Amino acid sequence: MEFSWPWEYDFPPFFTLQPNLDTQKKQLEAWRKLVIDYCRHNKIFVLDVQESMPLFQNKTIDRQLSSEGIKRVLEILQENQQIEWCDKSKKQCFVYWKTPQEWGNLIYRYIIDKGMTNTVCTFYELTEGDDVKNEEFAGLDKSILLKALETLEASNKAEVIMFGGSEGVKFF
Amino acid sequence: MRKRPGIGAIHKQRVEQERFRGKATELQDNVFEQMANQMEKFRTNLENFASKHRNEIKKNPTFRKQFQEMCASIGVDPLASSKGFWSELLGVGDFYYEIAVQVIEVCMATSQRNGGLITLGELRQKLIKARGKAQHHQNISNDDIIRAIKKLKVLGSGFSIISLKDTQDSSDVLIRSIPGELNADHTEVLKIAEAQAFTTIETLKCKLKWDDVRCQQILNELIRDGVAWVDGQSTTKTYWFPSFFKPLINEG
What we know:
heterodimer, A: 172 residues, Arc Repressor Mutant, subunit A, 2 domains, three-stranded antiparallel beta sheet, elongated, B: Arc Repressor Mutant, subunit A, 6 strands, flat
């Protein structure tokens, strides 16, 4: 299904950081929502800031958000804990349209439903296997999966295991 | 030798004055009584007329408007009636009060985007959509909406009506739902920006014969009010108005 862009995306001033601070607040909030909705729709788990994405520009109206603007948008996202920088260089970030906690809960519920507690699954099985094809967490980025499993570990619902060079997890 | 006016004479004079005053008051009272009777008659006739043509008034916005105008011409304002004239007539909670509440809802829902400035056309479109499925849905006209808003204004709610063109019927009417008057200069700029939802200083200078400073000042005020946004990536700085921006208006 085609992503449905919000009205702001076709509004040229949306790509200029607004001088009126109240308006700017509305603008950044709209950008925040757009980034999250876009990533959710396209199952983007990691955002690369440098890459010129259709997200921060609209070729149809020939407008592009400046790097200062992009920086501000990412700041807002970080304040909302909806992104997390992959490293200090701030070139890439994880996008949490679902938080690691929410991913953890989703996966755990799936495991319970399938009666798969006390068995070991590989990470591959959890995110790429045929069985999970229709699940929301299919294709989940491995780093985020790990964070998700860590939240489950904290509540004693899972344990990450290394066996024979692969990573796996046992659920309780 | 002429007698100077004595106390008696003054007293007499006073009594006569009182009598005249009394007569005048009596006359006034009579006239007023006659007028009051006439008004009662008018009112009764009006209510009879309204009853008889109840369906027409309910269904037909043009007829409804003419009825209102007729009321106004004989000095009767059904909107001010405490008996709930319209609710009795149309059989729905106060018709205009209802519209007024819905107007507030639409304005609140959209003011984030348009800075509290909405065209009458978009307002009507959204009202009709919101009312759509209701059993007592009638055709509401621009006139109905304006009357409802005027009712709000009487309550001091911070609503104001801005006409971009001279005709009342025209859809070139803006409703401001945030307090803060837009003055004549602001309105001039809005008139020009309406067609394409944007304008530039050059255009304003050309059409209004203002100088740079005045143009910039008025535009800055519109930006400060949250009604205008700036586009810094056009050849010359462009000033946009979400209130007139079609894709926003047609959305939801």
